[in-house]
Design brief:
20% of the residues lie in helices and 33% in strands. A hairpin with a 6-residue loop joins strand 7 and strand 8. By secondary structure, the protein is an alpha+beta fold. The N terminus is likely disordered.
Length: 224
């Protein structure tokens, strides 16, 4: 009975994520509602820690530009990312996304992060590859010890509370996890049986364009 009472007191945190826009370049919108567990987290920084699969990535240069304009705040682990690598040569990416309070809802937070689809190998039948995004983990960072030990536990996070090197503060995660849902991104891919046709068309287009450039150089170029 005591365990059930603790679980009831610590329930209420919900996490939702949504992909905005279409195509390879999307915005990942994450929303967090702390509910009952957020009563003692006032003044604490809230973040969502998510692991992106190899099929998508975050452009660190784009992220740096957005952070300079205070449009988003996130930490990438690792911070060196090969944006040109295809899906089958890429690795997972851990992202700590700092949340901003939602003025329309108390104890609600939200943040958006631009993500991009990677090139996938041609498929045998389906023209789409499925990239599964697992729901992020909710974290809070507080500079005092007022959080309830029944609802929150210390967490190991390789980032400062505010995205800047200030401290000392402690990260916490919810002891009783909310129900998470996966998000699926459909990435267009080519069909393997079209490989020969694509190679022939590419070769012909390259030869044609090269010939036109060479003809223009010979006709209008000035040679000493």
């Amino acid at each position: 009975c005591v365990i059930l009472d603790v679980q009831a007191a610590c329930q209420g945190a919900t996490v939702t994520q949504e992909l905005l826009k279409e195509g390879f370049h999307r915005d990942l919108l994450v929303k967090v509602e702390l509910g009952v567990v957020g009563e003692d987290a006032g003044g604490c920084a809230v973040a969502a820690r998510t692991r992106l699969p190899p099929g998508i990535y975050v452009d660190p240069y784009e992220l740096a530009s957005l952070q300079q304009h205070n449009l988003t705040k996130a930490v990438l682990i690792p911070d060196v990312i090969d944006v040109e690598a295809p899906e089958y040569l890429a690795t997972d990416l851990l992202v700590l996304l700092y949340m901003e309070p939602d003025p329309r809802c108390s104890r609600c937070f939200r943040a958006a992060l631009p993500v991009h689809g990677r090139y996938h190998r041609p498929a045998e039948e389906s023209e789409e590859a499925l990239v599964v995004l697992k729901s992020p983990e909710v974290l809070v960072c507080c500079c005092d010890n007022r959080l309830s030990a029944e609802c929150w536990k210390p967490a190991e996070v390789e980032a400062p509370c505010s995205g800047k090197n200030v401290g000392p503060c402690q990260w916490y995660s919810v002891t009783h996890k909310p129900a998470y849902k996966e998000l699926i991104l459909q990435v267009p891919v080519g069909l393997r049986q079209h490989s020969s046709l694509v190679c022939v068309v590419t070769l012909l287009a390259t030869v044609l364009c090269s010939s036109l450039i060479l003809a223009a150089v010979c006709k209008y170029g000035h040679f000493s």
